[in-house]
């Protein structure tokens, strides 16, 4: 029982101000042979009220790069706007599409330099012709780490064991999609701040496929 | 009321720390109840949360007391269990005395009001909001000893989300099926909009002249097919969400 945080510590993990809206959330991204799969739940909460039960937490940064948002909805929306803008500028100035690494490090820079004023945990993932599928986890504070299986948000704490146990290298697209959907379902089943539908996004060389799974057809739960 | 010390040594009673107003740890969310033509009905989900974690998904938050009363509890689950221990003790006393006395919902409601107010006055409340229902009776008692009776009652989030629905759709001549459907509608909205709710629910009823009965838990159907849901909003032209 010592490992479980007391409710007074877990009820405000992002230090949100009263009334501030949070994507208390489960987000996930996993690269596979040929691309990446991103996934997120859809619940946006103000305290214990569900302000939006079908939001979209997967934001598009460029044609082939997306980011999953968690933490303060206002902060992550502002971050996404900035990074989108800077990436557009970057693509014009360099004459080629941005790589995932560039997008992730831009995001990191802003998160790091404003670490005292932001409550945002993001996962930047996408496909580019240089390094193929990549996933970068950027938690609170502005660390940027490339990962083979990135999870984030308040719901992620419930699925560390599950993802550690189920993750395999070199999965195919469908297998990775199923893994992401299953993991997020399990997190949604236990985290009060995650719920609703699962939105997924598969980015490959051939383009982007977005899917949604209704809340009554989840692989597990609620 | 009996008090338990950690040791059996009576002198230890003086050294146990004094209790003060606590904070709840394992909690249940809303309870909703209404009167219908032919009885009363309560509904609640089967979730007890540990802070924001949905820890116990098969908690029974509505129980029968004696033969003709049902109680639903929101708030601290251990305090509800303690209340049930006390009430079941009274029911057993009735059996033992064998004098024909049986508590009814109204008297249990009064008794709980006294208990809750007493605890509140000692600054050590039982952290619950309770709904008590029985033959022709539907009442509310909360952790500070406030009580009222009405044709329909809700606790917690239910007082914000379920009461407006009940005000709009309740009639005194609801049939049992209509009453059940109305309660399910309320709990469905609560599942959509309350972070601490679950779609696995129980419905309990006391029909006129019959014993109280609590249903087995079952899952509510939910609708996720709204037009706005499926479309993605995180595209390039948007602000990245919502």
Automatic annotation (TrEMBL), chain A:
GO terms for molecular function: threonine-type endopeptidase activity. It catalyses: Cleavage of peptide bonds with very broad specificity. Pfam families: Proteasome. It is found in: Cytoplasm; Nucleus. Component of the proteasome, a multicatalytic proteinase complex which is characterized by its ability to cleave peptides with Arg, Phe, Tyr, Leu, and Glu adjacent to the leaving group at neutral or slightly basic pH. The proteasome has an ATP-dependent proteolytic activity. Component of the proteasome complex. This is Proteasome subunit beta. The lineage of its organism: Eukaryota, Sar, Stramenopiles, Ochrophyta, Bolidophyceae.
Automatic annotation (TrEMBL), chain B:
Keywords: Cytoplasm, Nucleus, Proteasome. PROSITE patterns: PROTEASOME_BETA_1 (PS00854), PROTEASOME_BETA_2 (PS51476). GO terms for cellular component: cytoplasm; nucleus; proteasome core complex, beta-subunit complex. Its main location: cytoplasm. It holds the Pfam family Proteasome. It is found in: Cytoplasm; Nucleus. It comes from the Eukaryota. Residues 1-20 are annotated as: Disordered. GO terms for biological process: proteolysis involved in protein catabolic process. Non-catalytic component of the proteasome. Belongs to the peptidase T1B family. This is Proteasome subunit beta. It comes from Triparma verrucosa.
């Amino acid at each position: 029982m010592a490992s479980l945080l007391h409710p007074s510590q877990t009820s405000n993990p992002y230090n949100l101000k009263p009334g501030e809206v949070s994507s208390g959330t489960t987000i996930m991204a996993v690269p596979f042979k040929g691309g990446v799969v991103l996934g997120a739940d859809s619940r946006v909460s103000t305290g214990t009220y569900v302000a939006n039960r079908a939001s979209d937490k997967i934001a598009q940064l460029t044609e082939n790069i997306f980011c999953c948002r968690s933490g303060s909805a206002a902060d992550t929306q502002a971050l996404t706007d900035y990074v989108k803008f800077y990436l557009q500028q970057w693509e014009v100035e360099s004459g080629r599409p941005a790589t995932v690494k560039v997008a992730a490090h831009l995001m990191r820079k802003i998160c790091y330099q404003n670490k005292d004023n932001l409550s945002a945990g993001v996962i930047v993932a996408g496909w580019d012709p240089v390094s193929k599928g990549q996933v970068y986890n950027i938690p609170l504070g502005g660390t940027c780490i490339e990962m083979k299986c990135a999870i984030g948000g308040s719901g992620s704490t419930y699925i560390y064991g599950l993802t550690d146990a189920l993750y395999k290298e070199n999965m195919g697209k469908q297998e990775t999609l199923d893994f992401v959907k299953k993991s997020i379902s399990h997190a949604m089943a236990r985290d009060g701040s995650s719920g609703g539908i699962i939105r997924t996004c598969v980015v490959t060389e051939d383009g982007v496929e977005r899917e949604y799974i209704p809340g009554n057809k989840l692989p597990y739960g609620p | 009321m009996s008090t338990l010390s950690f040791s059996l040594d009576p002198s230890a009673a003086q050294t146990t720390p004094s209790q003060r107003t606590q904070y709840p740890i394992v909690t249940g969310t809303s309870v909703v109840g209404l009167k219908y033509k032919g009885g009363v009905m309560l509904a609640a989900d089967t979730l007890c949360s540990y802070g924001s974690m949905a820890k116990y998904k098969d908690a029974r938050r509505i129980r029968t007391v004696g033969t003709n009363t049902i109680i639903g509890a929101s708030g601290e689950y251990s305090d509800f269990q303690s209340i049930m221990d006390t009430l079941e003790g009274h029911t057993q006393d009735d059996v033992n005395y064998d004098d024909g006395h049986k508590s009814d919902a109204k008297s249990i409601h009064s008794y709980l009001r006294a208990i809750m107010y007493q605890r509140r006055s000692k600054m050590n409340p039982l952290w619950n909001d309770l709904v008590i229902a029985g033959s022709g009776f539907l009442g509310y008692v909360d952790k500070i000893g406030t009580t009222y009776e009405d044709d329909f009652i809700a606790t917690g989030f239910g007082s914000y989300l379920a009461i407006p629905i009940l005000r709009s759709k309740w009639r005194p001549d609801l049939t049992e099926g209509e009453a059940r459907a109305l309660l399910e509608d309320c709990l469905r909205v609560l599942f959509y909009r309350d972070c601490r709710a679950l779609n696995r629910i129980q419905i309990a009823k006391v029909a006129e002249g019959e014993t109280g009965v609590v249903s087995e838990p079952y899952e509510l159907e939910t609708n996720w097919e709204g037009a706005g849901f499926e479309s993605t909003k995180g595209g390039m032209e948007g602000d990245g969400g919502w």
